[in-house]
Fold:
Amino acid sequence: MSRKLNLQDFLPYLLNRAGLRIGVMFSCDIEDFEVTLPMWRVLVELWHNGDHRLGELAERTSIDLSTLSRLLVTMQRKGLIVRRRSGLDGRALSLTLTQRGMELTERIVPHALHYENIAKRRLSDRDVVKLKELLKTVYDNLHAAEDEAAPISKARPRAKSGKRPAKVAAKRASKL
Structure:
């Protein structure tokens, strides 16, 4: 087999490496606020888009549903969010930021923007727009491929947890 795959030029590795670097830097910055990176995703999503149902929030933050459920309990104890039963469907949860959650998010936003600005250095505005479009396309391609591969993956051996390997990896990555 020819050795054509170069890790330093491998798209999945480059994406992961960049994401990990910015995630670690930002996480260190928000430690003083007693907020983790997954908590930040929840806070900023609710801050920007208002109330969400649990499943919708899991999808929009890329946090596994069971992980998100536990995270929300912690966030509620900290007084950052309120979980209520939805008026339309008593089984569904509606999630809202508290005033404390709103204020905390607004204090962290400048830190988040700082790291985005660092990541955009030496990129033109046009390059940034194109990069964001391309990353969304890559994500959509992977999402579609996972759906396409579902019947195939049933024939493949599963990870110890019984979940598909992509789901296991996504769960691990969501903890970042």
Observations:
- Residues 122-176 form one domain.
- The chain has a mean pLDDT of 87.
